[in-house]
Amino acid sequence: MRWTEKYRPKNFDEIIGNGKQKKEIEAWVKEWKEGNPQPCLLLVGPAGTGKTTIAHVIAREFSDFIELNASDKRSYDIIMNTVGQSATTKSFFTNDNEYKLIILDEVDGIHGTDDRGGTRAIGKIIKESIHPIVMTANDFYSKRLTSIKPKCKVIKIGKVHTNSINALLKRICVKEGIEADPEAVRALAKGSNGDMRSALNTLQVIAEETKKLEMSDLELVSQKDNTNNIFDSVRRVLKSKSIDKVKNSLRLDEDPTLVLEYIAENIPREYEKPKEIKKAYEMVSEADLYFGRARQTRNYTYWRYASEFMGVGVALSKDDTYKKFTRLTGAMAFSLMGRTKGKRALRDGIAEKMAEKIHVSNSVAISMFPYLEIMFENDDVAYDISTFFDFDEDEIKRFRKRKIPKSVIKRKEKERQEELDKRKEKQNQDDLAKEKNIKLNNNSLNQEESLFTSNLEPNIKNKESNLKLETEKTKENKEELNSSKKDRINKNKSKKEEETTKTDDDKENNIKKDKEIKKDSAQKSLFNF
Ligand SMILES: Nc1ncnc2c1ncn2[C@@H]1O[C@H](COP(=O)(O)OP(=O)(O)OP(=O)(O)O)[C@@H](O)[C@H]1O
Fold first, then answer.
1. Separation of 137 CA from ligand 1 center, angstroms?
2. Is 248 exposed, middle or buried (0-12, 13-18, 19+ CB in 10 A)?
3. Does 475 score more than 50 pLDDT?
4. pLDDT (tens digit per residue) in 324-371
5. CA angle 173, 204, 264 (to 5 degrees)
6. pLDDT at site 381
7. Distance from the CA of 226 to the center of ligand 1, in angstroms?
């Protein structure tokens, strides 16, 4: 295990140096925990001084945290997708009501044209986040920080003092059972120049196996810089067939893709048989694939596989170890990259223009370059294409050595102007025709309208008089109906009256008759007696 990990501080007390800054940071954490949101924290300072470590210690104070290497997320969309939502909703992990820390490492690593809104995205996250944010950066004066700094509480993390490093190294030597010359420990502390990571790495490299640290070891180490360390690793991979040794040699504090470049560069210097060289390069290519996958997915566990291929894979590609001295060289790729920086910038600029205009990716645009080179051989086509993409002189030079002749440019410009004039004229004519059409349409519309009205009017009048007649008729009918109804009612009434009188008469007669009958019967009964 790397000692930088083994001895990584787990709380503020274990972080050495920067006492005043630690207090400020602790106060910031306290405020958040008491429910008082604070501005985002920006820790700026040199490498290996504990910025990321501090961020992780802060993270322990919150319920959860999300960590992103800002320089890996150059796209606005990616940053917003990964952090944007988490920042604006409280529940980016589990507990809804608790604050979670957002760590954005290396915010100054978001680069120029590749930025694609990365800095803007960070600004948006700072503005909208309801969670605490800690950012780290190396370069206080980085342009990338210009817009970020004013929105943050900036804390400068300084180099760790030699005395503090010295004390920590001594403690580690005791824990690791290393017999250390105090003078050597001090020299190591001083030589690390405030970089705690470097001090720990050097101590581990020298003393982990030998369990000793002497001044003579340091003289050896002090001559070594990272590049020398890389050469040691590469030499070990190419010279050895011992898996352990090779694996150990690749444990160095260096970008593994850089180590891969160095190995690839030196394979043919050490290996002699074509079969060995072929196999070794197959291993390099496998390793490269894994690095690519790690980069794309940001899952850096793939690095492990990559190291297997570029270390053990390349080491075991040879039949036997070579007993010879080989002068190793640095990776040509990098010196080449340095030399071709301008060319690459030109290429990327052209690709970007093309990509934007014809909606393809930059790499597809670059893959069209050979065809453009052929097309650019023709002066007229060269002019047309460069005008279409808005290429400047340097960009045109990328595709043809000769400048486009002035006479061609003049003629083409004239043709272009004529074409433009023609188009303008045609446009004017079209506009006029359109206007005319509109007028004509309006006229015919008006005509149709009046025709319609004139046709409609008599009809309406007829209908109106019909309606009047009908209303009158209905009125008459109604009256008729009413009078007949009245008649009927009257008739019925008189009939009833008649009937009533008749009944009354009948009744009277009946009563009379009854009386007579009664009289008769009374007489009868008298007779009967
Ligand atoms: N102040 C410190 N106290 C104790 N250990 C430290 C301190 N600073 C760094 N270290 C050790 O160095 C290692 C690397 O430190 P860290 O990654 O925090 O540095 P950094 O400032 O973030 O560097 P970089 O800018 O390169 O990311 C830690 O794992 C830890 O072991």
1. 13
2. middle
3. yes
4. 877 777 766 666 666 667 788 899 999 999 998 998 888 899 999 999
5. 175
6. 94
7. 17
Contact between residue 249 and residue 237 where contact means Cβ atoms under 8 Å apart = yes
Instruction: Over range 191-209, report the average pLDDT.
Output: 82
Cα of 48 from ligand 1 centre, angstroms: 4
Residue 54 tokens read as 């501090």
Specify the pLDDT at position 237: 92
Residue 8 CB less than 6 A away from ligand 1 = yes
Q: Which residue has the higher pLDDT, 359 or 457?
A: 359
Q: Which of 4, 5, 42, 53 to mutate to test the pocket of ligand 1 (most atoms within 8 A of CB)?
A: 53
**Residues in CB range of 52: below 8 A, 6 or more apart:** 103, 105, 136
Any idea how long the chain is? 529
* Ligand 1 site, residue 256, Cβ cutoff 6 A: no
Q: How far does the centroid of ligand 1 lie from the alpha carbon of residue 169, in Å?
A: 14
As a dihedral over the C-alpha atoms of residue 476, residue 480, residue 486, residue 487, rounded to 10 degrees, the angle is: 150
3-class DSSP assignment, residue 102: strand
CB atoms within 10 A of CB 228: 12
For residues 358 and 465, the model is more confident at: 358
According to the model, what pLDDT value does residue 31 have? 92
Q: Ligand 1 mean position to 41 CA, how many Å?
A: 17
Q: Whose CA is nearest to atom 4 of ligand 1?
A: 15
Report whether residue 51 contacts ligand 1, using a CB cutoff of 6 Å: yes
Q: Is 200 in the pocket of ligand 1 (CB under 6 A)?
A: yes
Tokens of 446: 């008006």
Closest CA to 126 of 13, 234, 254, 39: 39
Token digits for 193? Answer: 């120049």
Nearest to 130 by CA among 156, 163, 92, 78: 92
Look up the pTM and report it: 0.48
Averaged pLDDT for residues 173-195:
89
Q: Can you say how many angstroms the Cα of residue 324 is from the centroid of all Cα atoms in its chain?
A: 53
Residue 50 in contact with ligand 1 by CB distance below 6 A:
yes
The answer to whether 102 touches 83, Cβ cutoff 8 Å, is yes
- The CB of 3 under 6 Å from ligand 1? The reply is no
Determine whether the shortest distance from the Cβ of 164 to ligand 1 is under 6 A. no
* Torsion region of 255: left, alpha or beta (phi above 0 gives left; psi -120 to 50 gives alpha): beta
Extended strands (E) in 85-213: 100-105, 133-137, 152-156, 179-180, 212-213
Angle, alpha carbons 344-345-351 (nearest 5°): 85
- How many Å lie between the centroid of ligand 1 and the Cα of residue 50? 3
Compute the average pLDDT of residues 370-374: 93
Q: Which atom of ligand 1 is nearest to the CA of 3?
A: 31
End-to-end alpha carbon distance in the chain: 158
